[in-house]
Amino acid sequence: MVGSIIKSKGQLDVLKALSNLNVKYRNKVQLDILGSGNKRYIKRLNQFIEKNNLENINLLGYQKDISSKLKNYDVAIMASRGEAFGRVTVEYMANGLVVIGNEAGANPEIIRDNETGLIYERNNINSLTKKLIYVIEHPEKANKLSVAGQDEVYAKFTTNINAKNVYNEYIELIK
Description:
Blueprint: H1 11-20, H2 23-26, E1 31-34, H3 39-51, E2 57-61, H4 66-70, E3 75-78, H5 87-94, E4 98-102, H6 107-110, E5 118-120, H7 125-137, H8 139-156, H9 159-174
Parallel strand pairs: 1-2, 3-4, 4-5
Helix pairs in contact: 1-3, 1-7
């Protein structure tokens, strides 16, 4: 997970979903949270991690050159309760990660569930847990999702495509 560490980004929801996993699955998961944020919320996350013996979780703080770091991961979680566009979701997909996204904000517009990534039900920890288990149990399908997600990004969200879309909208407005 990359971004500001604040309640609205949903990091605690992800920790709760991971705590729902049985040991068999939990041992297959490492979660790195990259970013800085609210010190009280970070303390709360650390307390939850300790209380629930979530050993494979690292709060790494602010990081430079995120794109190079994303190449070290297979899955990204977008648990934010609302994003206007979802730039980080697109960045995850562009870097070939399987994205598990909350059905809030722009995620449902960017991710086609079970085609270019996975969408879990808003504010539903059990739904997120099920998506995590699915990715663990189906690595071939996860690989197909990551490839399809990457293809989708390069077909719809490149700088040139966005510039052209903005230009066309502008032309329509001045007609």
